[in-house]
Design goal:
- The structure is a single chain.
- By secondary structure, the chain is an alpha+beta fold.
- It is built from 9 helices and 25 strands.
- It has a 7-stranded mixed beta sheet with strand order 17-25-22-18-21-20-19. A 6-stranded antiparallel beta sheet has the order 5-12-8-9-10-7, with no helix packed on it. A 4-stranded mixed beta sheet has the order 3-23-24-14.
- A hairpin with a 2-residue loop joins strand 1 and strand 2.
- It is elongated, with a radius of gyration of 29 Å.
Length: 405
């Protein structure tokens, strides 16, 4: 009744195939009972962890995860110095200083918001770029011999527009964009359930068994993961005489944008502005998720429904029931997250774009069964749940923190 093995298969002769043998000879063939159920255990209590599990996970070869994040080239900046109004010959460049001169290239055009000349928006053509400012030609009708440029105060917004090439131009200044490298640490999350042999054999008034304990432990473990994924602090903690401990950094501090509203006075106009900021000015999807504390949810519930921004019922995505808020900017899937309340941030929330969230796992979720009885330690059986993972935002500008003043 001996087992013979070849490099291609495990052969069992003279005995039935059981899950025990399968787990011994082909441990990756059958998934753990706990692992199969983890995404179905109280998904609404840990929406961020649930989304990260459902959208997929990447393996990490170490506890430190290096990743690259990138945003689109910004379209808006401001004048870093005031411009005194003047009249110049048509086609003559003037020097204009912005807060980000390096965002512009030759042949770019840009508009100065709120400034006009001869009834037309004030638009310039970039003829040269230097560290101290931009040489820009005011665009005007060719019939005019002179162009009057109004005064422009410091802080006036400037909007990049399309490039303008000549008929014989075959090239244009290069546009290169390099992602920024960052890193995060995978944190080892653990939970252990242990039961004595006598406890397992004893009659119980209710049907409470070891699997029920596992489910409760997983739910508690996921709540801890959810808090760390949101508000964790990235750190490598050295311990004298022991191995280092890694803690993961939360996505709250990784988000590239922020919206602040007056506490206790959230209005329809605030909601419209929140939607505008969530879906404009950065790379992102037309559908995003809003997780928030109870105070923020109460403020949203107190608003009247209008035709511009409205509640459109519920939608089930990733196993979670979301309320939907729809506007002409995009759609928000809204979910109460009690993690914000537990962390003292009931008036805060976060808009996340699931398309640009990546979960890395150095140790995928595993459930190891340990018999302390067989080891001669104590008369108990245990299950140790382990996962080493972290969450990163690939496009920080697609995600936004919400704070109450």
């Amino acid at each position: 009744m001996a087992d013979t093995q070849t490099p291609a298969a495990a052969h069992i002769n003279g005995q039935p195939l059981t899950t025990g043998l399968t787990g011994q000879l082909s441990p990756d063939l059958l998934r753990s009972h706990v692992d199969k159920r983890i995404a179905r255990i109280r998904p609404s209590s840990t929406p961020l962890d649930q989304i990260s599990r459902m959208v997929g996970c990447r393996n990490s070869g170490s506890m430190k995860v290096d990743y690259y994040s990138v945003d689109t080239k910004p379209s808006q900046t401001v004048l870093s110095d005031s411009f005194a109004g003047k009249t110049v010959p048509n086609g003559t460049p003037v020097k204009i200083a912005t807060a980000h001169n390096d965002w512009f290239s030759e042949t770019d055009t840009f508009m100065v918001k709120g400034i006009s000349t001869d009834g037309r928006p004030m638009v310039f053509y970039v003829s040269a770029v230097a560290d101290d400012g931009i040489s820009a030609i005011p665009l005007a009708d060719a019939s005019l011999s002179q162009v009057s440029i109004p005064s422009m105060p410091e802080g006036t917004e400037v909007v990049r527009m399309g490039r303008a090439a000549g008929e014989l131009d075959v090239q244009t200044p290069q546009y290169n964009l390099l992602p920024v490298k960052d890193y995060n640490y995978c944190q080892i999350f653990k939970a252990q359930i242990e039961e004595s042999t006598l406890q397992r054999l004893a009659d119980k008034e209710v049907g409470w068994n070891f699997s029920d304990q596992e489910e409760s432990a997983i739910a508690d473990m996921r709540l801890g993961i959810e808090k760390s994924f949101l508000f964790g602090s990235r750190c490598r903690l050295g311990r004298p005489g022991k191995e280092d401990v890694y803690t993961t950094g939360g996505i709250w501090s990784q988000a590239g944008r922020e919206y602040t509203y007056p506490a206790g006075a959230f209005s329809q106009a605030d909601l419209t502005e929140l939607m505008r900021k969530a879906f404009t000015g950065g790379a992102g999807s037309p559908r995003k998720v809003l997780l928030g504390g109870s105070e923020l949810m109460a403020a949203l519930m107190g608003l009247d429904v209008t035709r511009v921004v409205s509640g459109t019922g519920k939608k089930v995505v990733w196993g979670i029931d979301f309320d939907c808020i729809t506007s002409k900017f995009g759609t928000l899937y809204v979910k109460l997250s009690e993690i914000f309340d537990l962390c003292g941030m009931s008036g805060c929330g976060m808009v996340i774009d699931p398309e640009y969230i990546t979960k890395y796992a150095h140790i995928p979720f595993t459930a190891d069964r340990i018999s302390f009885h067989k080891q001669g330690v104590r008369n108990t059986e245990a299950v140790v749940l382990t996962e080493a993972s972290c969450l990163v935002l690939r496009y920080p500008g697609a995600h936004m923190r919400i704070k109450a003043e």
